[in-house]
């Protein structure tokens, strides 16, 4: 123990030294430790990263490097950088060579190269790029996994737990997420003296990472032929970029100071667009966010970016409305109001992802999930946020008048789901086998056809936070699905005529810690629940069964129509690929993969940063 | 025979072999446009056997006469059959090749750089025996080593064999300019434009090519083949292999650009005969209006 006479450390020396063993001990208890202490103890490491990208840094030094960018320490940090969830592999497909990786120096607790720490003094090295993209991704993952987000670890949409990150993948105006190679790939372009590295653009990283996250959270969306589901992927990419940049203190505070928090009139809104436009140049989400499009405007369209604007615009409207509320009705300063807004927006936009159905998500599904998550977290809703959001979804025609009427019906917060066989939620949450048994025991009540081998696609607990970082009840989320075989028998399916495809069906059940079902999102099929000759149930069950089969038939017809349209418009094809790589210009927006004698359709990675959904003049033909 | 114009398009699988006979004079004017296939050489042999039966006698004993051979562009499916052995018993009077096939054409320097790069890259792919989708195999096959023989034959052996000089033709030239006089007919060359780089390459392709050539120096020091030292150690080899196969390949993209460029520099031949017009366009991909600096058929943005 220190003597009383011991000299005090200098005031500016706010850190204290911890050994490796100490750090691991503290790491294990990190959830109970405040952020400031984590930083002092080396559980959060300061990195230099670009706030936006080098060109912005050059034109406006205030938006240059982020001065307070901390990344959580973890025990397995290694060269690459490599961490639990990311492995940077700097392979260049043009040269066929690996760029030497940044090296982890445990003594300094920093990434180095050639003996130098990779910070603001080494911005031009390729190893700094490696660290930049890795650090931005670590923080983005925290954004989704933290309590204000999903409140749980999220898995990737592929086998394994490490997403490969390729910072200098080759020459081209591209960056994309590719499930099949478990990777995020960032390309570079422009002449030598004006080289643009997409791995240094924070919003490109965030947009692509949004795809990776959604593919992990709902891996079956990639199999959808619905343009709205593809658009939802783009929406989440754009929204991720918008929300994470607003979480950044220096950017947000500057925005607050410039607008005085008043975002109510069109001029101020335009200012935000200008701010985004200046700092995030030529990026699609600017145009995505600031628009007045409704679902009527995009009906019949197929371009995911175009369609996504309706939902991105709606969420941006909510953000503006929240900021206005905090300033005008709660009397907060602009800076406080923006902080309150972004925290609330994170919960409002990200937490409902756990409530989404397992397949074929629509904008309506998401809007209903947003509203449901909000009423669960804020049942008394003293400031009418629910109605504010509902009005926005109505204005955008994402929700219908019937939806609004149903949501305004007098009702309780939760209703008991009629289940025949009781299962304790802790038991359901405990193992997949128990979840299977729960589903099987309650097949009839859940309208799972008797002859379908249902799959537990995912099962997890989530510990989300509400306002003032208060813990919400633990959620257990059970996702199940099955596949219905659909024959393709018409000339309109082109080369697919005579084959079969599958209609994905299933549901998402969200329980609270008492076993109450908080939310049931379902995507039914066309098959009857009960076996033949079994005496059918009547009453409410039969009404529900009839409605679900009708919805299943609507879904089947929509799938067939979508497929026929894809064939006709030439958006469906085979990926020209091989061991030498992909030929980007010949990648169709959707690829057909044949497995088990069926034609599976998959969304193709969006292989261009240009916001061009009309595919230019190239069409893809299918030939077997 | 007699007074009719004959066009015979031989079935050679994927490829072109077109015989045109313009009536007039003693025994007509006989043109062969291209002679190639992606498939078996047997198809070409059969086509040439049939062709011989239609050709008139040449000046030397036992030889047949072809008044004009037009080679639209350098792809294998258009030139594979130009083996000097197949033409030993045929006198070729005139040989027209696309200006883009001229190894010394001053306005195709950058295009030649692209072709050389692509050819090397695609031959590496072919030599490595990598697994490719059918579409890509087709693309790679256009650059096969066997093409060199046909190109040499067209530029040197066949001209020597016939005591003629090949003419590298471009838009604006006519049969009269090129010293050919089919009776009652005019041949007009509508493509390619003489300024190959300016019209067909485009700034993007040029910039990308320079970046790629520079990348060897600035990114990784060398573009040598993948070696053990070029394998990352923080992921498994299987994951790395899969990653490689799922990355965008600039070499393939260039092959596509180059292949498209070669198609677009095809000799486009208009035959006017008795107020009738016949257009032979080779593989020109006229996708849109030409715009300076954008490559043929690409939009300005």
Note down, in words, how this protein is organized:
By secondary structure, chain A is α+β, with helices and mostly antiparallel strands. In chain A, β6 (103-105) and β7 form a beta hairpin. Chain A is globular and about 75 Å long. Chain B has helices at 41-54, 76-79, 109-128, 134-141, 146-162, 196-201, 203-220, 237-245, 250-264, and strands at residues 6-9, 17-22, 29-35, 64-66, 68-71, 90-92, 95-98, 167-169, 185-191, 268-273, 276-280. In chain B, the strands form three sheets. Chain B has a six-stranded mixed sheet. Chain B has a three-stranded antiparallel sheet with strand order 9-10-11, with no helix packed on it. Chain B contains nine helices and eleven strands. Chain B has 301 residues and is α/β, with parallel strands linked by helices. The chains are: A alpha+beta (624), B alpha/beta (301). At the A-B interface, β4, β5, β19 and β20 of A face α4, α7, α8 and α9 of B.
Task: Throw out a few tags for this protein.
heterodimer, A: 624 residues, alpha+beta, 4-stranded mixed beta sheet, 4-stranded antiparallel beta sheet, 19 helices, globular, B: 301 residues, alpha/beta, 6-stranded mixed beta sheet, 9 helices, disordered C terminus
């Amino acid at each position: 123990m220190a003597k009383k006479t011991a000299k005090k450390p200098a005031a500016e020396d706010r850190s204290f030294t911890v050994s490796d063993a100490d750090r691991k001990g503290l790491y294990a208890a990190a959830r109970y430790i405040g952020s400031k202490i984590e930083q002092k103890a080396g559980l959060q490491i300061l990195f230099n990263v670009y706030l936006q990208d080098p060109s912005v840094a050059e034109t406006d030094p205030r938006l240059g490097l982020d001065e307070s960018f901390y990344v959580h320490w973890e025990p397995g940090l290694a060269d690459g950088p490599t961490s639990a969830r990311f492995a940077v592999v700097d392979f260049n497909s043009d040269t066929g060579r690996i760029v030497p990786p940044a090296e982890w120096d445990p003594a300094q607790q920093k990434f180095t190269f050639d003996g130098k720490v990779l910070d603001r003094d080494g911005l031009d090295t390729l190893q700094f790029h490696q660290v930049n993209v890795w650090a931005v991704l670590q923080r983005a993952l925290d954004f989704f996994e933290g309590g204000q987000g999903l409140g749980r670890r999220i898995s990737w949409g592929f086998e394994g737990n490490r997403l490969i990150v390729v910072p200098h993948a080759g020459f081209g105006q591209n960056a994309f997420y590719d499930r099949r190679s478990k990777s995020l790939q960032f390309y570079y372009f422009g002449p030598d003296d004006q080289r643009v590295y997409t791995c240094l653009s924070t919003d490109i990283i965030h947009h692509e990472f949004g795809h990776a996250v959604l593919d992990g959270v709902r891996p079956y969306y990639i199999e959808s032929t619905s343009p709205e589901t593809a658009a939802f992927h783009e929406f989440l990419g754009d929204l991720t970029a918008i929300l994470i940049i607003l979480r950044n203190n220096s950017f947000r505070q500057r925005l607050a100071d410039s607008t005085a928090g008043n975002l109510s009139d069109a001029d101020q809104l335009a200012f935000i667009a200008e701010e985004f436009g200046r700092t995030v140049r030529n990026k699609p989400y600017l145009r995505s966010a600031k628009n007045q499009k409704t679902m009527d405007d995009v009906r019949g369209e197929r371009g995911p970016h175009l369609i996504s604007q309706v939902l991105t615009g709606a969420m941006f409207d909510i953000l503006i409305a929240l900021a206005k509320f905090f300033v005008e009705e709660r009397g907060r300063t602009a800076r406080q109001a923006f902080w309150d807004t972004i925290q609330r927006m994170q919960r409002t936009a990200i937490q409902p992802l756990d409530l989404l159905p397992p397949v074929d998500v629509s904008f309506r599904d998401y809007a209903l999930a947003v509203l449901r998550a909000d009423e669960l977290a804020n049942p008394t809703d003293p400031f009418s946020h629910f109605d504010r959001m509902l009005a926005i979804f109505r204005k955008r025609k994402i929700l219908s008048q019937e939806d609004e009427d149903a949501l305004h019906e007098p009702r309780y917060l939760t209703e008991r789901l009629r289940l025949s066989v009781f299962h304790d939620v802790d038991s359901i949450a405990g193992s997949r086998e128990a979840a299977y048994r729960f589903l099987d025991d309650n097949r009839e009540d859940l309208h799972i056809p008797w002859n379908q081998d249902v799959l537990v696609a995912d099962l997890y607990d989530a510990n989300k936070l509400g306002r003032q970082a208060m813990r919400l009840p633990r959620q257990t989320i059970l996702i199940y699905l099955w596949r219905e075989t659909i024959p393709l028998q018409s000339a309109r399916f082109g080369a697919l005529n005579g084959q079969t495809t599958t209609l994905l069906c299933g549901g998402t059940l969200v329980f609270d810690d008492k076993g109450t079902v908080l939310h049931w999102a379902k995507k039914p099929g066309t098959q009857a629940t009960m076996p033949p000759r079994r005496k059918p149930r009547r009453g409410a069950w039969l009404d529900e069964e009839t409605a679900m089969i009708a919805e299943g038939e609507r879904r089947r017809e929509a799938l067939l129509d979508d497929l026929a349209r894809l064939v006709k418009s030439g958006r469906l094809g085979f990926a020209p690929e091989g061991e030498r790589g992909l030929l980007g210009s010949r990648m169709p927006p959707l690829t057909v993969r044949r497995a088990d004698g069926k034609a599976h359709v998959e969304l193709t990675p969006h292989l261009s940063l240009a916001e061009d959904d009309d595919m230019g003049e190239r069409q893809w033909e299918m030939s077997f | 025979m007699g007074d009719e114009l004959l066009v015979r398009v031989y079935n050679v699988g994927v490829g072109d072999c077109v015989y045109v006979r313009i009536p007039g004079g003693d025994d007509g004017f006989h043109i062969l446009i291209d002679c190639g296939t992606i498939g078996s050489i047997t198809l070409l042999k059969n086509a040439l056997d049939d062709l011989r039966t239609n050709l008139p006698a040449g000046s030397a004993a036992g030889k047949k006469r072809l008044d004009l051979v037009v080679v639209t562009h350098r792809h294998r499916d258009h030139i594979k059959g130009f083996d000097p052995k197949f033409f030993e018993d045929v006198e070729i009077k005139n040989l027209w090749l696309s200006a883009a096939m001229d190894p010394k054409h001053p306005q195709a320097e950058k295009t030649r750089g692209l072709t050389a790069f692509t050819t090397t890259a695609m031959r590496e792919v072919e030599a490595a025996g990598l697994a490719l989708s059918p579409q890509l195999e087709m693309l790679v096959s256009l650059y096969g080593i066997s093409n060199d023989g046909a190109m040499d034959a067209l530029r040197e052996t066949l001209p020597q064999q016939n005591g003629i000089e090949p003419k590298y033709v471009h838009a604006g030239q006519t049969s009269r300019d090129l010293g050919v006089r089919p009776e009652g007919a005019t041949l007009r060359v509508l493509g390619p434009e003489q300024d190959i780089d300016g019209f067909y390459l485009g700034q993007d392709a040029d910039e990308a090519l320079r970046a790629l050539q520079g990348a060897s120096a600035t990114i990784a020091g060398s573009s040598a083949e993948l070696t053990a030292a070029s394998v990352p150690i923080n992921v498994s080899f299987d994951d790395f292999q899969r990653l490689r196969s799922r990355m965008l390949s600039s070499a393939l993209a260039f092959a596509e650009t180059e292949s498209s460029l070669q198609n677009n520099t095809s000799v486009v031949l208009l035959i006017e005969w008795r107020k009738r017009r016949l257009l032979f366009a080779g593989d020109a991909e006229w996708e849109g209006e030409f715009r300076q600096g954008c490559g043929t058929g690409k939009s300005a943005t």
